[in-house]
Amino acid sequence: MARGKRYQPEQVVNLLRQIGGAESGQAGVEGHRLGKLLSPERRRSAVSHACERGVSERHACLLLGQPRGTQRYRPTQREDEDALTQAIVTLASQYGRYGYRRITALLQRSGWKVGKDRVERIWRREGLKVPKKQKPRGRLWLNDGSCVRLRPTHPNHVWSYDFMSARTHDGRSVRILNLIDEHTRECLMVRAERRWSSSKVIAGLADVMVMKGVPEHLRSDMSWVSTPPGW
Fold first, then answer.
1. Residue 137 and residue 183: Cα distance in Å, rounded?
2. What is the percentage of the chain residues whose pLDDT exceeds 90?
């Protein structure tokens, strides 16, 4: 049996770095940091690539800390693997907020004799993820009590104002009131004050209304909309 070419340890390390760069989609090893070969599968892949470059399997396994038995292991696929994978993908598409544990419960309820570890393995292999939970968006409460988010359709339909915090050169805080037209995205007002009171806010909005007209709705930073009487 022919033996592989004998490399020095430094040469093997450089070769494995080049392999890692190719697997990560980089042209070379300069300018990026390689990921760690933590999983047996990644080490198995690195050893296989090194053997293709002429490094002996024994030498590559020794440098990577990969047992040769693990390197030569070939996973066996069960007969129901494809059907189970399809069932998991279907349930994940149907229940987008469910993780692999709840998917496992649904599979067991439908007759599958499967544990969460096997479902998790398939889940990760297929790249399934639960989308991040988004912050609930504010709703506009209309006069009839319905909760329908109002979409601006024309200028002066919905104005929105919000506060920002900043500090001046002396370290004192300042609050900035910003007002925009949600339809045109025009900034109608930017005003800074050390302290804001309700009367100052009303006075600032009134100044803009004199110049731009009165909007149909006002949305504040607390996600509510006011429709003053007589508008």
1. 18
2. 23
User: How far separated are the first and last CA of the chain, in Å rounded?
Assistant: 92
- Report the alpha-carbon distance of residue 224 to residue 62 in Å, rounded: 65
Q: Which two tokens stand for residue 211?
A: 């110049």
Give the 3-state secondary structure of residue 192: strand
User: Burial of 129 by CB count in 10 Å (0-12 exposed, 13-18 middle, 19+ buried)?
Assistant: exposed
Sheet holding 173-181, edge to edge: 187-193, 173-181, 158-167, 217-219, 225-226
CB of 34 closer than 8 Å to CB of 20 = yes
Structure tokens at 78: 């069960």
Place of tokens 């990026």: 32
- Residue 59 and residue 4 in contact, taking contact as beta carbons nearer than 8 Å: yes
What's the CA gap between 7 and 28, in Å, rounded? 21
This prediction's pTM = 0.37
Nearest alpha-carbon partner for 157 in 220, 91, 214: 214
Where does the pLDDT of residue 13 fall: very low under 50, low under 70, confident under 90, or very high at 90 and above? low
Give the span between the Cα atoms of 65 and 81, in whole angstroms: 31
Alpha-carbon separation of residue 214 from 120, 159, 160, 201, 224 (angstroms):
57, 10, 13, 15, 18
